[in-house]
Amino acid sequence: MSLLSIRDLCVAMGPQEILRGVSLDVPDGSIVAVLGSNGVGKTTLMRTISGIYRGRQGSISFAGQPILNLPAHRIVALGLCQAPEGRQIFSNMSVRENLVLGAGDAGPGELDRIYTLFPVLAERLRQNAGSLSGGEQQMLCIARALMRRPRLLLLDEPSLGLAPKLVALIFDLVRRIRAEGVSILIVEQNARAALRIADHAAVMEDGRIVLAGKAAELRDDPRIAEAYLGGHVHG
Amino acid sequence: MIDPYYLQQLAIGLSLGMTYALMAIGFTLIFGVLNVVNFAHGEVYTIGAFAGLVAITAFAPPFLAVLFLALAAGAAAGFSLERIAFRPFRRFTDEASLKSRAMRESTLLSSLAVSIVVREALEIVFGSEMQPLPFEYMINAPVQAGPVTLATGDLIIFGVAAAMLAGLQYMLKRTRIGLSIRAVSNNPLGARYVGINTDRTIVMTFVVGSTMGAAAGILVGLYYGAIFPAMGFIPGVKAFVAMVMGGLSSIPGAVISALILGVSESMATTFLASGWADMVAYGFLILTLVFFPSGLFGAGRERV
């Protein structure tokens, strides 16, 4: 069964079409990766799912409910949370305040679970989020999105700008989060790492999905190998 | 031994500064969440005073009830102001509008328009001169504190304002809505990702800020016995100066600056004719803008 189902989604910024008919499914309990180079519309897709951008055409349904163009806060309340590109943490507020805000109506009850997943955050609760290192900020961003116990977690470029060791740590965390029953839609430029953890993957080019399938198959697809895996070092 | 006269001026200055602080907080909170100056904030102060006046003339309630009604009127004014002058411009959420200065400037002008309409409407209904106020509601009875003579108003203003500041601090640090206000100030996009209803948060910011502005209005009105439609203009300018001195979006900065402003003005009347005391605020504004363009307390402090 599809937890998230996107059909023919078109999104435009003014006269410029960014997404031109994207269809994508996230089966319940799976990790789906969206690959593609810069500027093909991956972040636009993620923002439209979360209700930050408005779609012009098409549909998005989450757990059977249409969510396209619902206000962002209502989408979050349904259990669809995102760790966005650029992290967007509250840098002037404490780590704990960031987490409590992430919890919303759910209250701070999830804090203990977060501490076991992210022990480093537990040591920094009173610190300003802006004073954390890049890797810690990324963890805070993911932890904040988990505070509501979402059914679907959207991760937009979680490895961007991180050292290889931290990238491995983040991807390991993604696996553990899925093991707890959270479905995941992840956008990555680091195709190699993403394909290793994903069940399904889709490749975007110029606002369209040009290739989709099982991650294991895409890993061996010569087109992928050439365009996204061959010789590229993305960190 | 300090001359009691200076102690007295200091106390008066502190209570005056507290009223500026109450006003400046509204400016600062709203600037924090929206990045625009609310030009109608002075009118909220006036509305607070007039709501108290109307209550007094209509059914002469006890002092606390007058205060409460003024606060309620301020809250209602803040709510309506956001609906009329600010929300309509937030329909335009595309990237181009968000970046355009024209959008911010139109919001600024719409709040100025509301301010003019409110002032003119009050003049039509009440006339532009000072409103008569029953003597028993005035809060200027002398109080002897050691060698210093104060007015009850000084103590009441200081007490009410301090209580409101403490309440505000508690709200911003400990309550959901307070955390949301700070989150929207800090990172509006991040706030949407965590599921904060930003529209509701912005309305609440106006309600809270305007309640504090209205409190200042009724307290000053009853202290000086001076309630008239244009009364909000000068305090509005002073509070604006305090906000700029404090670094635009820092509440502690705005409060400290407001107190500095109040005390300086009250001390200045010793050396200057009282008509010149207003010059102090403008002098501070110029000095701040020239020498401390990011506020007296430096940039990078927490917004709100």
The chain-level mean pLDDT of chain B equals 91
Tell me the number of strands of chain A: 10
Q: How are the strands of the biggest sheet of chain B laid out side by side?
A: 1-2
Percent of residues in β-strands of chain B: under 5%
Oligomer: heterodimer
Specify the overall morphology of chain B: globular
Order of helices and strands of chain A: EEEHEEHEHHHHEHEHEEHH
Instruction: Give the uncertain stretches of chain B in residue-range form.
Output: none
Query: What is the CATH H-level superfamily of the domain at 1-79 and 153-160 and 183-235 in chain A?
Result: P-loop containing nucleotide triphosphate hydrolases
Number-wise, the strands of chain B total 2
Quote the beta fraction of chain A: 25-35%
CATH topology of the domain at 1-79 and 153-160 and 183-235 in chain A: Rossmann fold
Biggest sheet details of chain A? 6 strands, mixed
The Cα radius of gyration of chain A reads: 17 Å
Could you describe the 3D structure shown?
By secondary structure, chain A is an alpha/beta fold. Chain A has 10 helices and 10 strands. Chain A has a domain at 1-79 and 153-160 and 183-235: P-loop containing nucleotide triphosphate hydrolases (Rossmann fold). Helix content of chain A is 36%, strand content 28%. In chain A, the strands form 2 sheets. Chain A has a 6-stranded mixed beta sheet with strand order 6-7-8-3-9-10, sandwiched between helices. Chain A has a 4-stranded antiparallel beta sheet with strand order 2-1-4-5, covered by helices on one side. In chain A, helix 3 (95-103) packs parallel to helix 6. The model of chain A is unreliable at 231-235 (pLDDT under 50). Chain B has 304 residues and is mainly α. Chain B has a domain at 21-231. Chain B is 72% helix and 3% strand. Chain B contains 12 helices and 2 strands, in the order H-H-H-H-H-E-E-H-H-H-H-H-H-H. In chain B, strands 1-2 form a two-stranded antiparallel ribbon. In chain B, strand 1 (142-145) and strand 2 (148-151) form a beta hairpin. Chains A and B meet through helix 2 and helix 3 of A and helix 7 and helix 8 of B.
